[in-house]
TrEMBL record:
InterPro entries, per database record: Aldolase_class_II_sugar_metab (IPR050197), Aldolase_II/adducin_N (IPR001303), Aldolase_II/adducin_N_sf (IPR036409)
Protein name: Putative L-ribulose-5-phosphate 4-epimerase
GO terms of biological process kind: pentose catabolic process
Record Pfam families: Aldolase_II
Organism (species): Sutterella parvirubra YIT 11816
Length: 309
C-alpha cells in the first residue's frame, strides 16, 4: 500500500468524507473527525491529514486541513488539529494496513457505548468490522493519550469499535471504506437496539460467523482493489425501448422510468449513495461501481432517446 503525497485532491476527499457524515446523519454537531494517511508535500515525512477543530464541515477549505507528522513534531497548517488527533495517530501507527479513520458520536452506537453494550453477532453484517462482535473500548477522557491507547488496543485486530461514554471509530483502506463502515456500525446499532426491545437477542452460531468473516475477507481481497470489475460491465448495445430492464428486473417503459427518476432525484441519489457504500464494504472498487452506474444510466438514456424519435 503506497501512501499518497499530501495534495489538494486528498484534502478535498477528506472534506467530502466529513460532509458525507452529515448527509448520512452519523455526525452530531462538530463532534466527528476524519483522518487519512499522507506524506508531507514539503519533506516527504510520513503522517496524516486530519479535520481541524471547531469548524463546520460545510465551510471547510483544503487549507483548513492539518498535517500531523508521525512520531511528534509541529502540526502543519493554519488551523488547530481535531482534539482527537492523538487517537487517530495511535490507531494509524498500530494499523499500517489501513489508511483512513472516521470518528463519530452517532446516536444509536453511542447509546450502546454509554451502556457499555458491545454489538454481538445478532446480524451477519457485524462481521464487516472484522470479528464476531463490535467491542467497547473502556472509557478514558476525550483528547487524552489514554483514550488514544485504549482505542488503538481495541482496533488492533478489528476495523471498528465503540468508545465507552463517547462514540465510534471505524477504519478503512480508503476514506470511502472507513465512512461506509462507520455508517454500517450505526445501522447495526439501531437494529440491535430494536432487537433488544423484542426480547433476548438471538445470535448467529460462532461457526457460521467464522464462515461469514472469511467470506468478507475473501470479498475484500478481490482484484476489486484495482480496477478489475466485480460488477461486470455490460456490453452496451442499445436495447429496444420496451424491453430494457437493467435496474429492477422489471419491464418498464423508459419514459416513465426517467420521469420517476427525475421527480425523485434526491431519493434516488441517497439510494445510490447507500448502494455505493454497501458495494464498498463488499470490496467493490469505486471504479467498478462507477462503471456499472454509467452503464445503467447509458442504457436509460439510450432507450429514452430511441423512444423520443
Ligand atoms: Zn469524540
Amino acid at each position: 500500500m503506497t501512501t499518497p503525497i499530501d495534495s489538494a485532491a486528498l484534502r478535498a476527499g477528506l472534506i467530502e468524507t466529513a460532509r458525507a457524515m452529515n448527509r448520512r446523519g452519523i455526525n452530531v454537531n462538530k463532534s466527528g473527525n476524519v483522518s487519512v494517511r499522507a506524506l508531507s508535500d514539503e519533506d516527504g515525512r510520513a503522517g496524516f491529514l486530519i479535520t481541524p477543530t471547531g469548524i463546520p464541515y460545510e465551510s471547510l477549505e483544503p487549507d483548513d486541513i492539518v498535517f500531523v507528522p508521525f512520531g511528534g513534531g509541529a502540526h502543519r497548517g493554519r488551523r488547530r488539529a481535531s482534539s482527537e488527533w492523538e487517537m487517530h495517530e495511535r490507531v494509524l501507527a498500530r494499523r499500517p494496513d489501513v489508511s483512513a479513520v472516521v470518528h463519530t458520536h452517532s446516536a444509536y452506537a453511542t447509546a450502546l457505548a454509554c451502556q457499555r453494550l458491545r454489538i454481538p453477532a445478532f446480524h451477519y453484517m457485524v462481521a464487516a468490522a472484522g470479528g464476531d462482535a463490535i467491542e467497547v473500548a473502556p472509557y478514558k477522557t476525550f483528547g487524552t493519550p489514554e483514550l488514544a491507547d485504549a482505542a488503538a488496543a481495541a482496533l488492533a485486530e478489528r476495523n471498528a469499535c465503540l468508545l465507552e461514554h463517547h462514540g465510534v471509530l471505524a477504519l478503512g483502506k480508503t476514506l470511502e471504506k472507513a465512512l461506509a463502515l462507520a455508517a454500517e456500525v450505526e445501522n447495526l446499532a439501531r437494529q440491535y437496539v430494536l432487537v433488544r426491545g423484542l426480547g433476548e437477542p438471538r445470535l448467529i452460531e460462532s461457526d457460521e460467523m467464522r464462515r461469514v468473516i472469511e467470506k468478507f475477507r475473501t470479498y475484500g481481497m478481490q482484484p476489486a482493489e484495482g480496477d478489475a470489475a466485480v460488477i461486470p460491465a455490460k456490453p452496451q448495445e442499445p436495447s429496444p425501448p420496451e424491453r430494457w430492464c437493467t435496474a429492477s428486473g422489471a419491464t418498464v417503459a423508459c419514459t416513465e422510468k426517467v420521469k420517476v427518476l427525475s421527480e425523485n432525484w434526491e431519493e434516488a441519489r441517497s439510494m445510490m449513495t447507500d448502494m455505493f457504500e454497501d458495494a464498498v464494504l463488499l470490496g467493490v472498487s469505486k471504479a467498478s461501481f462507477r462503471q456499472a452506474m454509467h452503464a445503467l444510466v447509458d442504457s436509460l438514456e439510450c432507450a429514452y432517446e430511441e423512444k423520443k424519435e
